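User: I'm putting together notes for a lab meeting next week and I want to include a structural view of one of the chains we've been expressing. I don't have a solved structure, so I'd like a prediction I can at least talk through. The sequence is below, exactly as it appears in our construct file.
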Amino acid sequence: MGRVLVFRLVLSLVILYSLPVMATKARLLSLGNSFQFTDPQSVYQKPIDLIYIDNLVSVESGLTNATTLNNGAEVFVSHLLNDKAQIGLSLGHQDQAVVTTRSFMNAVLGAATYELAQNPVHMFYGVRDSLTSYVFGAFYSYKNDRLNALTESSAGLSVGVEWGNWQFNTVYTAVNAVEVAGNQRFDGKGYWNSSVSYQLDDTLFRFSYLNTDAKSTTGNTENEFHRIETVTLGLVDSNVKEDNNFFWGVEVVSTAAKCRIRASADCNKLYTNTTLPFLLGIEAQASDWLILRSTVKQILLVGITKDEVPYPAGTFNNTTGAVQNVSAISNTTAVTLGAGIKFNKFTVDGTMTTATNQTVNFTSLLSQVGISYQY
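Assistant: Thanks for the context. Below is the predicted structure for the 375-residue chain, given as structure tokens.
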């Protein structure tokens, strides 16, 4: 019991101290989306992270009509009700369950047939305790355009539990549907993403499992039916000294897509991909008002792809649109840079380079910007 209380006290102090720089998509992108960081953006897939975020408002720049997981405008608010309970509210965030399944189907169909969630809302409620803490979440979106015969809806639940050094998180999507003109429908319900992690001194171990279906039908005819599974096992080691965090991590990521129906015909073929991504990064306090961040990522040794379907290029990792069975991949070294600037209780985070554009120029500079306020 005493060890648990000491662990939670130390972790809380570290997180609360770094809270002014813990706020936006720009920060996580600059840090390679490494899974050990607690941030409003991590709450959607790890709801238990809410208990480490106090009174905070985070605003993200982006498009009104988002096309990816990261390029939409959104706002997140966390508010403490008392010393044991808090709530969270998010407007505009594109949930991973919706983006991954609908974007996948659009890639398979070769056209942007199904739009993403419209005016999505996420809500969270957390209960803090010295031994066990809980966070419950829910999200939804809805649109009904009768003039253009377009309807869109999504709804899901999430639960996070922390018990001692263990954390458990799960996200389930009960509704994920789009219907467009011509009686063409998408169904991606049943998305399930669960993870378990364990903190051992400076090292965080994590296992996650994702399972989802993606279907497209026209009338009573099923045109596409695919089942996707991803298993991830990884660790991250963090070395925090004098407000500087140097970290490294490695994961084994295995993805399998089972094609049941393709282009209205029986498929029964398989795509598999196994990689070993390695990550090295730093978040450093350059001055009282400036935080610098950098991460380098590369797939090491293992890069095995087998595609019998075949899936279009860009649908999954290393797909080309042709049948393949390879144990090598092209160069994957990617560097991201970012910075955070403090103004009293405000923090502005921005990217300096991105993984796809690794040059500091006007295209990549501040391509992702967010501002947060701790109240």
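A couple of points you could mention at the meeting. Residues 1-21 have pLDDT under 50 and may be disordered. The helical segments are 2-17, 25-30, 96-109.

User: Perfect, that's what I needed.
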